[in-house]
Every structure is written in C-alpha cells, then in structure tokens.
Amino acid sequence: MAEFAAGRDEERFTIEEVTRYFLERAREIDGTLHACLSLNDNAINRARQLDNRRRREGALSPFYGFPVMIKDNLEIKGSPTTCASRILEGYRSLRTATAVRRLLSLGAVVLGKTNLDEFAMGSSTENSAFGPTKNPWDLRRVPGGSSGGSAAAVAAGIAPLALGSDTGGSIRQPAAFCGVIGVKPTYGRISRSGLVAFASSLDQIGPFATGAEDALECLVAMAGRDPLDMTTVARDPEEMRREFDQTTLSGLRLGIPEALFGDGLDPEIRERIGEVRQRLGSSGVREERVELPHAASGINVYYVLATSEAASNLCRFDGVRYGHRTAKTGALREMYEETRDEGFGLEVKRRILLGTFALSAGYQEAFYKKARKVQAMIRRDFLEAFTRCDLLMTPTSPTPPFAFGEKTGDPLSMYLSDIYTITANLAGLPALSVPAGRDKNGLPVGVHLIGPPWSEGRLLKVAGEISRHYDPGLPPLHAMSAGAGGVR
Amino acid sequence: MKVGIPLFRGWEVVVGLEVHTQLLTRTKMFCRCENRFGALPNTLVCPVCLAHPGTLPVLNSEAVRLGLRAGLAAGCTVNPVSVFERKHYFYPDLPKGYQISQYSHPLLSGGSLRVRTPEGERTIRIHRMHLEEDAGKNLHAGIPDKSHVDLNRAGVPLLEIVSEPDIRSPDEAVDYLKRLRQLLRATRVSDGNMEEGSFRCDINLSVRRPGGEFGTRVEIKNVNSFRFVHKAMLFEIDRQIDAVEAGERIRQETRLFDPSSGRTKPMRSKEEALDYRYFPDPDLPPLVVDQAMVEEERRAMPELPEHRAARLVASAGLTVADSETLVGEEALADYFEEGLALLEAVPQAAGGKGRERWISFILSEVLRELNRRGEAVLSGETSATRTVPLIARVCSGELSFSQAKEVYQTAAEEGTDPLVIVSRSGLAQISGDGELLALVEAVLAENPAEVEAYRGGKDRLFAFFVGGVMKKSRGKANPEKVGEILREKLGSPS
Questions:
Q1: Is A71 a catalytic residue?
Q2: Of A71, A113, A184, A461, catalytic
Q3: Is the pLDDT at B279 greater than 70, yes or no?
Q4: Closest residue of A to B47, CA-based?
Q5: Contact of B60 with B28, CB cutoff 8 Å
Q6: I want to staple A155 with a disulfide (CB 3.0 to 4.6 A). Which of A76, A178, A486, B233 is the partner?
Q7: Are residues B189 and B106 in the same domain?
Q8: Looking at B299, B318, B343, which one is the last position of a domain?
C-alpha cells in the first residue's frame, strides 16, 4: 500500500490504470478461480473521479484509490448482497456496512464482491450456492472458508486487499490455506453494522493482505466506536499503530500451548511452526509453556453457541419482506416452510436445526446455558495465560488445504478444521494467521497468533517479522488464465 | 380495616393482569423511526425495524428513562443490570422473527398500586415491569384472500407491567387498570389510549375455594377496553365455576375474548404453547442503569394521582369521591384547579365561596361535555378562564346557577365565549352609565327615609341600595358600577 501511495503521488500510474489492471486480471483468471461473485461496474468511473480529485486537491490517505474486494456478506448500498444464498435472490442493500463506508470515505475503490460459504457457514466455500472457489495454489483443493473468495482473490493477485468476516476462523483458516495474512480483530473493535449476521457475539470483520502493514492500515481505517453497533467499544484505532511501532521482538514472551500440538496435527505443519519458533527465538523471543485446559471443548461450545445465534439471526429470512419467496401458494405456514426450504442450503439448514434444538425448552440448560458457562472458562484460561505471556502461537489449521469433496460428507471433520481458531472467537480475542512457508506439496502453511484484547498492533508486528522470512510467493497463476470470462 | 374478599357463587377469583403500554418516546425502541399512531401504513419504517440483513438494534435511552419513571412512580426496585432477550416466533408482523424483550432480568421488580372498590381499599402488588418492542399489525380487510402488514408499529417501545395474582374481582381489576393508566398518564410515560392500542391488557384468571389451593390459570387475550375486561372476567368466572362444579378440570390454555358475543374462546392449549427459545440478545449489551438518570427521574417526579387526590381533599375541601373523579380525568383536575385559583381572585367568590359551586358545576356540566365532546372542551372558548366568570356571576347574584349551566352548554355547543352568550341573550349586566344612573335615581327616590338615615351615618345601608338597584335591573346591573354611582349620588356618610 505504501508502494501504491508513492507511485500514485509521483504519478507513475493513475488510479484508473491500477483499477483496470486488477479488474482485467479478475476477468482473466476468475473464470477458473471463482473467487468473485460480482465485479463492480462502477469501479472505473470511481477511479477516474478519484484521479481528477487528486489532481485538484492531492491525496491524503494511503487508501486513496486503493483497490479492495469485499466478502459478499458485507453490504454496499444499492448493490446485491447475496451471502452466497438463494434466499437473498434479487435483494439489494439499503445501506453500506460501516467498515466498508469508512474505507470508501478514505478513497478506497471496491473491485467487487467475493464468494463465501452460504451465510459464512463453512470452512471450504463448498457451501456457496453459486459454486465453490478454488485454491490458487492447487485448483483441486479448497481455499478454506468461509471467506475463501477473499483469501483466494488476494493470493491470486486479483486484489491487493480484501475484507472477510470471522466467526470461528473464517478469515484465518482461508488465509492459511491461501498463503496470505488474515486478521480477526478483538470483538468490538470493528462495527458489525452492515455485516449480515451469522453468530452476532462471535462475528468480526477483518482484512486479508499480503503484508502486515497493509492489514494494520486497513484495521485502523475500519475500527472505532459506531453508533449503529452497540457492541463496538470506544478505543482509539491509532493505538494499534502505536503498539505496532513500539513492539520489539526481543524480550517478547511467546506462549506455546503444547497440548495443542499433539494428535491430529499434520506433522509437516508442526515442523514449519517449529522453524518459525526457532527463528523468533533467535530474535530474542522467549517461549513460555501455557495451559489452556478448556480449549479442547472449544468446538463443542462453538457449535452450540454459533448455531443458536445463527438459527435466531436467520429467522428474518421468511419471504415476507425481501429476498426469495416460494412460487407455491398455500397458507402462511407453508409459505414460510417452502421459502426457507428452497432458499437455504444444506449446511445452513443443518445449523438452524442444531441451534433451534440447543435453545429449545428442556434442552437449553444442557446445551446453550452449559456452553455459555464453558465459554466463560475458556475466556478465563486465556486471560490467565496472558498473565504469563504477551501472545500465543498455535497452528491455524490442523491440516493443509484439503481436496474438494473430501470433507463435505463428514460435517464433523469439516468442523474440526477450525479447532485452533474457534477459541479466539469464543474469548473475543484478536488473532491472525500469517504464512509460514509451504509444505512438500507446495501448499501454504499458516501460523496462528492470538493476543490479549486490543493487541492487534503487537500481533501484526510479530506477523510482519514472520512473513519477511516465509513469504510464500505467488501461486502458479499462468495455469489459471485459460478459462477467462466466467465472472458473474 | 380488613377488607372482605368478594366471593362468586362461593368461589374466590384470583386474577393477575399483564398490561402492555406504549411509551411516549419520540422514536422507536431500537431505531430512529418516528413513534406515532395513525400514519399511512409502512411510512414509519427503516431497514432496522424492517429487519433487513446487516441491521442492528440501538437502544433508545428515552424508553429506559420512561420505564424507570413508571417504575419509580409505582414504588418498584430498579435493577442495576437488566438483559434484553430474544423471543422467537414466526409471524408476518414480527420482521426479525423474534421480539426483543426482557425475560430473566427485567428493568424493574416489585412495586404496588392501591385500588378502591365498594368493598374498600386494597394493595395490588406489581411483580415486575420490563421493556420490549411492539410488533406490527396484520391487516385482513380489503382485498379478499390477501393479508397486508403495516410495520409502523413494529419496534414501538412498550413497557409490560405484570401484577401479582392479587386481584379478586372484575371491579378491582378495572379499578387497578384505571389507576395504572392514570399513573402512566400523569407521569407522561404513556398516553394510555386504549382505542389506539397504546394500553392493552391480558388477564390471567383462576377460581378456588376461599383461601384454598390456586386453581388452574387461564389467560385471556385481546381485551381492549375496561368494559370488555369486566365482561370477559364475568364470563370467564362463570365458565370456570360451572366447569369445576360439574367436576371438570380447567385446562391451562390461552383464550381469546370475542367482544361481539361477550364470550371467551379457546385459542391454544398448554400443549400447543409456543417455545419462544429465549436467549440474551447478543446485539445488545446488558443494560446498566445510569444512576444519575434514576436520581433525575426521582427528583423530577410529578405529583402522582394518589397524592393529588389526597391534596384536593385536604386543601380544597373536596369529598374523597369528588376528588377521585377529578383526578381520574387528569385534564379535568387541572381545569378545576386553574378555575379555583381564578375564582379566589374574584371578591364575591373568594375565600372558598365559589368552590362548592365550581366543583358541582364541573362534576355535572363540564364532565358531561367532556364525555360528549372530548378534551377539546376543556380549552378554547370553554376553557377554565372563560368559564369561571359564569360562576363568579352566580356568586355575585348576577346569574342563577341554572342560567350559568345553560350558557355553558350553549358555549360548548357553539364554541362561543360564554360571556358573549350572556350579553347576546340579554343576560348581560347593565353597565351603561345613563341606564344605571336612571336605576339608581329611581331607587333613591323610592327610599327617601333610608337615604336620610344613610346620610345621617348609617353606612351599612349602602348594601341595601345596591341590592335595590340589582333587583330593579333583575340582576343585570354591574354591581361595581352601581356602587360607584351610588357613592357619587349619596355622598359620604357624615
């Protein structure tokens, strides 16, 4: 982004040229990749206007003219927001998400909307009603999810920056699978207004970027209290930049929950992370062994709480006011049933059923309420661990990117791919995934950093150091140029 | 005094009431749409109250303030932390598929209200008060086979007030509702308008042998006036007593009151009860009450109806019944007090002399016109300021009480200043100097002995001359002017 801003200000290129470059690249390779659900028809116009205004007034923000892709569960006024679901057929948003609006007000250019698992429910983008996104490193493999489209777009160079949302790992796991940086901020850091809710108490918006500085810049731009979201916290976004600048590796205490490096973890991933630990150690980072005794319950807790909230949040898609409504005629009850049956995909239905059950009379005590109690214990574990270390490191995903169809028949193994990321959402903590090189098949490996509340700046500083040594490079894009022109 | 519990065919009736009252906020509970009745359908809506994707609720602190005020007025305990939860059910008038309400942790707990029935006075405890949002309205009129939804009301702030099962008769229930409504109106928490649905009531009713085990409770919904509450309860009491006396068991169920038949009908049984799947709304942090706001509300609390009624008894010498009637119609009590202050400034009516006439005038004439024409009759041409001169003239003997009533009725009818009617109908006082002079001279000429005596020092005879002139004018002479002219004609007594 710094490079872009310099080139822009020195007039080595225009914003229009940059915008055209990325859109053309999208048109060229996205037929194969399917990272995007729509491209912004108005992007070139906006770029031109920004160029003109810059000539008159000069540019202020590094974001001025910077292209960005948006996950298609974030709203832009007047455009479709599909959430990769048939139930939002024909829907156009009435407002722009606060996070997106803040980027736009600095001059960002939206290139388009990216693919996702339907309503952000999934870990592979295979649950998109519009077909899956492919992993740019291996087209037979998934890009991760739910923000797979955004991760793939940044990895494939369709956009230098993209926004995603993360409820249980939906930014970090695809970032690991695609070899980019992906950040889930502290809960309350960024407004959720205009983000179509999956699990309101866990959802946060965050960036995908190729460098830590770009991610930081994006977070600072989006963060801060929003009168439209009562769960946002009034903290100065610039504190992240300050901490980023002030953090030094030497003397930093890195917590390692050894118990999480055991069974089920791909040995090569363990090895890559070992290398990273060694390198950080040589920069003066001290390792601390920490225990997170309740972390193992994270998946169970998550699939009770997230589905409970999801079942509730998705009640509004009833065919009455907007979106899909069944063509069949019948009584009110049939209208609801048919509309929702036709509109929602399998995984969404599964989670609605799970969540409805977990909140039902007679079961709420055993499921929802118990999960809330364990959630509090998980949170205490972390806060206790952070009395002895400044940040924690785990793998982002237990496995490298898996093949299409490999886990679709087994939801539980799919759910387990979020085992390392989920606890940060449950505890409301900031966390990120940063590339740590590639495995023997050439597939990216991600390292996962978790920090105490509001420590995004510190995490990004460490991530920046790691990525300097383990830049996975660019995927073999030439292979993708063949099937151009398939972008919706 | 211990009050006897009224029995119905030997059975004790146990009733708890749930009242939903709309709050007088400028905007809705969780969005900034206007909170107003009577607008064209779906004109007071926005993405938030239409439950568009990506929208979030933002709590209206004015609703919290009004809730607190109502709670403080009824002696409730303010809970420092309360929680908004989601109550789920599918219906077209409920855009989100859930209603945001308070469940496990309400804003207010405890409290009470005094009621008075012919049997005496009792305290009805209030269990809790909590905040929630209203739903929209389904409209079934118009095109056949189609229903329409008006979402103007969706998201309007409601306060739900739940009583303990302390009510023992339909009379008591109606009195409780009337007093609760008075309280909400006097504190400007709600307009309490039942026709517009801003004050609604559900009844929970069971019967038992006096003092015995509680019977099975039946909930009656859709009772939208005091009269219907009374009717629905009487019907339900008989239905339940008939059933238990016939050896049947009462089904725990929800019933609907049908105003056209005056009967309650089953709506859904306990088995069909909805599972609302309450859980804390993750979009709304727990509501931590601002203590400064509580103190502000405590300090600014207006005089409550109960206190006002007591004050009117003590200071204006009203009977308890009269004072309660007045306070029952807050605007009428205002009218009374405004008029009373004005009367005190009129010499002939001062010192409480006009008070009795004024209260009896209000309770007969003004109350009737109020019921007939609505609150407009308390302002404009028939305001207290315009009406009080009639009573002043009654006090000074210029008008008879029945003349005053007639004039007032015409004034209310036509919307004309009562004094204009007085002068128009020849009831006007004679104030013209020439005419008065003639009258005075006639009276003096008729009473030479008294004139002599007055001039000789019997100044008490002055009133005799004034009376004579008033009589001659058949009450129409302006007594003040008569006095002036008399003084001039008679000279000072030596």
A1: yes
A2: A71
A3: yes
A4: A94
A5: yes
A6: A178
A7: yes
A8: B299
Tell me whether residue B2 is in a domain.
Answer: no
Return the pLDDT at B168. 95
Catalytic residue among A146, A147, A191, A193: A146
For residue B132, what are the CA distances in angstroms to B59, B102, B129, B182? 11, 6, 10, 21
CATH number of B454's domain: 1.10.10.410
Amino acid letter, residue B369: E
In sequence order, the β-bridge partners of residue B128 are: B109, B162
All residues of chain B having their beta carbon less than 8 Å from the beta carbon of residue A360 are: 275, 277
**Cβ pairs A/B, distance under 8 A:** 94
Boundary residue ending a domain (B299, B314, B329): B299
Instruction: Decide: helix, strand or coil at residue A33.
Output: helix
- The answer to the question of residue B1 being in a domain is no
Task: Mean pLDDT check: name the lowest of A172-181, A218-227, A395-404, B388-397.
Answer: B388-397
B333 Cβ contact partners less than 8 Å away, ≥ 6 residues apart: B308, B312, B326, B327
Considering the domain architecture, whether residues B388 and B419 belong to the same structural domain is answered as yes
Q: Quick one: B236 and B327 in the same domain? A: no
pLDDT at B344: 86
Residue with tokens 């003004």: B366
Residue B488 has pLDDT above 80, yes or no: yes
B135 lies in the same domain as B245? yes
**Residue A357 contacts B, CB cutoff 8 Å:** no
Residue of A nearest to B50 (CA): A321
In a domain, B420, yes or no: yes
Is B254 found in the same domain as B216? yes
A227 in contact with chain B, both atoms CB, cutoff 8 A: yes
Nearest chain B residue to A201, by CA: B282
How many residues does this entry show for chain B? Answer: 494
SS3 label, residue B223: strand
Per-residue pLDDT, averaged over B151-169, amounts to 97
Q: How far apart are CA B205 and CA A53, in angstroms?
A: 71
Residue type, A441: N
**Closest CB to A194 among B54, B98, B284:** B54
Whether residue B179 sits in one domain with residue B205: yes
Length of chain A in residues, anyone? Answer: 488
pLDDT at A485 over 50: no
Q: Helix and strand tally (H, E) in chain B?
A: 16, 18
Please identify which of the residues A128, A170, A193, A417 carries the catalytic annotation.
Answer: A170
User: Looking at the structure, do residues B87 and B206 belong to the same domain, yes or no?
Assistant: yes
Best of B46, B56, B281 to substitute, by most chain A Cβ atoms within 10 angstroms, is B56
DSSP A311: H
Token pair of B355 as six digits: 């008070």
Q: How many CB atoms lie within 10 A of CB A248?
A: 11
What pLDDT does residue A9 have? 93
Cβ neighbours, 10 Å, residue A341: 10
Q: What is the pLDDT of residues A436-462, one digit of tens each?
A: 999 999 999 999 999 999 999 999 999
Q: Is A60 at the interface with chain B, CB within 8 A?
A: no
User: CB burial class (10 A; 0-12, 13-18, 19+) of residue B321?
Assistant: exposed
- The answer to whether residues B233 and B277 belong to one domain is yes
Q: What is the mean pLDDT of chain B?
A: 91
Q: How high is the pLDDT of residue A483?
A: 40
pLDDT of residue A484: 37
Domains of chain A: 2-286+396-483 (3.90.1300.10), 295-378 (no CATH)
CA dist., res. A48 & res. A225, Å (int): 32
User: What CA–CA distance (Å, rounded) separates B463 from B343?
Assistant: 22
pTM of the model: 0.89
Token pair recorded at residue B79? 């809970």
Contacts of A368 in chain B (CB under 8 A): 279
How many angstroms away from the CA of B255 is the closest CA of chain A? 22
Q: For residues B147 and B97, give the distance between their C-alpha atoms in angstroms, rounded to a whole number.
A: 18
* Domain residue limits at B442: 433-490
Number of domains present in the structure of chain B: 3
Kindly state the tokens that stand for A392. Answer: 């924690």
